């Protein structure tokens, strides 16, 4: 009996669960003629939200405190090379038809970079890195469209992709394009502009947090 008990104990000790090196990305989109509309969060659920241009929750800024780690903009939106490389990667993807989870998305026109959308992305990546969370909902309960409005951008459609743990633009773009919801945002014909940012914090769970923001101005 003692031998059997030891064998059972040994089997329990070697049993565990695996982990992944990066967070699973999420996507969200909003649209509306007056800034009001419905938001789609992730690939499998709907979450209604409203937005009135010029108002909304105040998003935390890139200098927010409350973390024990440091925030390094590194590959972030403040780096001109980052903006050029991310925009080039997105426009290369949009230049050809793609299968986004069984839905064929036709090639669409190239986007232009917008610095208000870049700042909205930087705010969210910074907060995720500083406060160690991964969600489209911000630290103050704000939505992706709220963050765009907070930057003074008057929008008729917005969309957001987030990811965590990927080490390069090529890696994160590959992951987004393989995910139906993210792929549809990248290929969205309704969008004409974008901004993006990545922020690193070695103390946070995934180390690096990515945000893409897409929009069409009103």
Summarize the structure in words.
The chain is an alpha+beta fold and 218 residues long. It contains six helices and nine strands, in the order αβββαβββααβααββ. It has helices spanning 2-13, 80-94, 115-131, 144-150, 169-177, 180-186, and strands at 23-31, 37-41, 46-49, 98-100, 103-105, 112-113, 155-164, 193-200, 208-217. It has a seven-stranded mixed β-sheet, with helices on both faces. A two-stranded antiparallel sheet has the order 4-5. A hairpin with a 2-residue loop joins strand 4 (98-100) and strand 5. Helix 2 (80-94) runs parallel beside helix 5 (169-177) and helix 3 (115-131) crosses helix 4. The longest helix has 17 residues, at 115-131. The radius of gyration is 19 Å and the shape is globular. The termini are far apart.
